[in-house]
Design a protein that fits this description.
Helix content: 40-55%
Number of strands: 7
Shape: globular
Radius of gyration: 20 Å
Structural class: alpha/beta
Order of helices and strands: HEHEHEHEHHHHHHHEHEHE
CATH architecture of the largest domain: 3-Layer(aba) Sandwich
CATH topology of the largest domain: Rossmann fold
Number of helices: 13
Bound molecules: S-adenosylmethionine
Strand order of the largest sheet: 3-2-1-4-5-7-6
Strand content: 5-15%
Number of domains: 2
Oligomer: single chain
Largest sheet: 7 strands, mixed
């Protein structure tokens, strides 16, 4: 299923796309936000960035539709200053953090526990560590720390213990095997509304893709590529992402000003139409 862009009109409003402005969509994905920005103002230029080589396929279509106004670069967003060091500075940048529906729904990539797939979870083929490596080779303590630090899972130690017991019998190779191990560790009891495996899968994904380090580096480097007065718009999906954005703003409050005092969340209608939007939180800032 193609990714449905989240908080689309709200994000575009915050980005303030004016005539001839230069925009970065730092998380191109399936290009939902990019296409809406290109259509919103017929004179703006958009640079799409995504670390996933598969995003390039969708980007080629957009490039053919908007040859003068859109370009795609396959890269991590922590490298934005290197990518754009010789270009004029930008008016607006959008970060829609996390993974896209196309990534989650491709079971061969191992992001989802809804159907069986290999334990991979890398956003880019150039990354080296996979979920298989972590669950089969890391120490029990390191696995527990990853699950606790990046998943905020209170039962991290029980889950890590069970993983290490299971791998003594045979390697853990698939997402459903891991999901069953997590359920065993929690004695098949439900502790919250979300699936027992959600936090552990989130933790592994964040660790493997160094998602939090990427966000911190990218935000810190924004003054190198933005004009004064530029807009920065972020969409986060969990507390760890939001915490980094809030800390970055607080630590730079002399130059990074909030546009909206309160965060913007999806409407009831949007959540009904696209349940994956339910945890999205939109923030807008001006670089003064
Ligand atoms: C939520 S999706 C974005 C969806 C997009 N806004 C759309 O409308 O189709 C997040 C995308 O960001 C990409 N991504 C995540 N971390 C990244 C990073 N550090 N650098 C570049 N791209 C990243 C993922 O590969 C994924 O395609």
């Amino acid at each position: 299923m193609a990714h449905t862009p989240v908080l689309l009109s709200e994000a575009i409003e915050l980005m303030q796309i004016s005539d001839k402005c230069k925009v970065i969509d730092a998380t191109f994905g399936d290009g939902g936000h990019t296409k809406a920005i290109l259509n919103y103002n017929q004179t703006c230029n958009v640079f799409g960035v995504d670390r996933d080589e598969l995003a390039a396929t969708q980007a080629k279509i957009v490039e053919s539709q908007y040859p003068e106004r859109f370009r795609f670069l396959c890269s991590r967003f922590s490298l934005l200053p290197e990518l754009f060091q010789n270009t004029e500075k930008f008016d607006s940048v959008l970060f829609d953090f996390g993974v896209s529906s196309s990534q989650i729904d491709d079971y061969n990539r191992g992001f989802s526990f809804m159907r069986d797939g290999p334990l991979d979870m890398r956003m880019s083929g150039t990354d080296t560590i996979t979920a298989f490596d972590i669950v089969n080779t890391y120490s029990q303590k390191d696995i527990a720390d990853i699950i606790y630090n990046y998943g905020e899972e209170r039962k991290s130690r029980e889950i890590a213990k069970r993983i290490v017991e299971a791998r003594k019998v045979s390697s853990i190779t698939t997402t459903l095997q891991l999901k069953n191990i997590i359920n065993d560790a929690l004695h098949n009891k439900k502790f919250s509304k979300i699936d027992n495996a959600t936090k552990t899968f989130q933790a592994l994904r964040i660790y493997i893709n160094q998602e939090l380090e990427e966000i911190s580096s990218a935000l810190a480097a924004l003054p190198l590529i933005l004009k004064h007065g530029a807009r920065i718009v972020t969409i986060s999906f969990h507390a760890l992402e939001s915490r980094l954005v809030k800390e970055w703003q607080r630590n730079n409050s002399n130059t990074i000003k909030k546009i909206n005092k309160k965060v913007i969340k999806p409407s009831r209608e949007e959540i009904i139409q696209n349940p994956r939007s339910r945890s999205a939180v939109l923030r807008g800032f001006i670089y003064e």
